[in-house]
Design brief:
four-stranded mixed β-sheet; alpha+beta; elongated
């Protein structure tokens, strides 16, 4: 019997598992990343250049303000009247055979008991260049109650200085009344010692100023009412600095009505007692009975918004908003569009995005001046200034419309309507606009980021469903 050879069992060689093949990153995505960084840097540099240009335009506007201030006499600064001794050359001094000691005693025992003023400021913005300068017209009226503390008749001199030199500031319809009767030939030259207040023109020099003056008698223990009225013009602010009653307190009532704007700021002095807001107007009241301190009122009349300065802030948002905008646009088109965006398409979108910011900036500064030679042959040409929100609306419609059409033709209009329109509203409309509203910009930016997160969440949910 032949024995069969015994073969050793074959050991199976373990088969090596194939290594998972790594998916190569799409070269288009790498190009997207590279050019997104490059374009963001370029837009950042462009925004800095445009910000510098806007700053230069603001400096021109400031120089124009200086020229306007010289014409309108600068900020309106009104000093309170003063009570003084009769001059030795005064007819009353001579007729009553006064002495220096007697005239001094009269003044020392005559005091200002109350001030009741009513000032109406009418905003009358003057356009110089592309900016409206904060000029205004003013109607001033004040009643001063003078009290004689003596048991005998006193004789005093009442002097009211106009706000600044009449050669550089317009004064009209000036009237001085004593107990309701107008004083004739009341205009005079007044010299007042310099004060410590920068709101008083006498702070800068010690020259003579035009004003109103009255010399008269106050019966024993009685008072007289002196009323002053005038009209003038000013720029930016109205300031009034009163005088203390050396014998005690005084009642101080002051009303300022600002017509043509509800924007104002109280800079210094007494706190406002009450406010009343009307249609394009605001009234401020100071009611201070038994006031021992020196009364002071300082108000800045609200400027008309400077579109160039206001909208130039949008350049600060260009680079960060573009970075987010282009990433989201490229991703959405790559993931949900009919076709991916080529680099040339990305360049076109970038150019449109970049043009939007200077377009809305200069559009907001667009004006029609009927005095220029172009309109000299037309009888009726309106003075038109582009409203800020209308400028944003036009820019969004024009630039956004081109983007919508471009992305619609490439990735599909369904995709463009669903994703691109909300994104453009945020990137071109919302975020640049809120920067021009500094008081609420941070709150509105947070609201915009929340809206952007809603878009991202919606996109993520759509991806999970597919």
């Amino acid at each position: 019997m032949n024995e069969q050879p015994i073969h050793a069992p074959k050991l199976e060689t373990p088969q090596t598992q194939p290594k998972p093949v790594k998916k190569s990153v799409d070269s288009l995505v790498i190009q997207y990343i590279f050019f997104t960084i490059i374009f963001t840097i370029i837009i950042g540099v462009f925004s800095l250049i445009m910000s510098a240009i806007a700053q230069e335009r603001n400096e021109i506007a400031y120089r124009n303000y200086s020229g306007t201030a010289e014409l309108y006499g600068g900020p309106l600064a009104q000093s309170a009247p003063s009570l003084g001794m009769l001059d030795t050359q005064s007819s009353l001094y001579v007729e009553n055979d006064l002495s220096y000691a007697t005239a001094k005693r009269y003044v020392e025992n005559t005091s200002l008991q109350s001030t009741d003023a009513d000032v109406t400021i009418t905003a009358d913005f003057v356009k110089k260049g592309l900016v409206y300068q904060p000029t205004f017209k003013t109607s001033f009226k004040a009643n001063y109650l003078l009290k004689n503390e003596l048991n005998e008749e006193s004789l005093i001199k009442f002097q009211f200085p106009f706000p600044g030199n009449i050669s550089s500031q317009e004064i009209s319809n000036a009237t001085l009344l004593v107990n309701g009767e107008e004083v004739t030939n009341a205009k005079t030259q007044i010299t007042i010692n310099p004060t410590k207040s920068p709101y008083d023109y006498n702070y800068y020099n010690n020259t003579q100023y035009d004003g109103l003056s009255w010399e008269g008698k106050i019966p024993a223990g009685e008072d007289v009412n002196v009323e002053v009225r005038y009209e003038t013009v000013g720029v930016s602010s109205f300031n009034y600095e009163g005088i203390e009653n050396p014998k005690g307190s005084q009642d101080f009532k002051f009303k300022v009505t600002i017509n043509g704007t509800r924007s104002y700021d109280v800079n210094d002095g007494l706190a406002v007692s009450d406010r009343e807001f009307g249609d394009g107007a605001v009234s401020l009241f100071w009611d201070k009975p038994d006031l021992y301190s020196k009364p002071k009122v300082s108000i800045t009349v609200g400027d008309k918004l400077n579109p160039s300065a206001q909208v130039s802030r949008v350049y600060l948002t260009m680079a960060p908003v573009y970075f987010v905008f282009i990433i989201i646009t490229l991703y959405l088109a790559y993931r949900f569009g009919k076709r991916k965006l080529s680099l040339f398409d990305m360049l076109l979108v970038t150019i449109l995005f970049t043009l939007y910011f200077p377009f809305v900036h200069y559009l907001s500064s667009f004006t029609i001046d009927p005095t220029i030679e172009l309109f000299s042959n037309f009888s009726k040409v309106p003075n038109f200034s582009m409203p800020l929100y209308l400028a944003f609306l036009i820019a969004v419609v024009v630039i956004g419309g081109l983007m919508y059409y471009l992305l619609g033709r490439i990735a599909g209009f369904k995709f463009s309507s669903k994703f691109v329109i909300p994104e453009m509203i945020l990137a071109l409309g919302f975020f640049p606009l809120v920067v021009t509203i500094p008081e609420y910009s941070m709150l509105l930016v947070i609201v915009g980021v929340i809206a952007l997160m809603a878009i991202i969440i919606q996109t993520r949910v759509k991806m999970l469903r597919e």
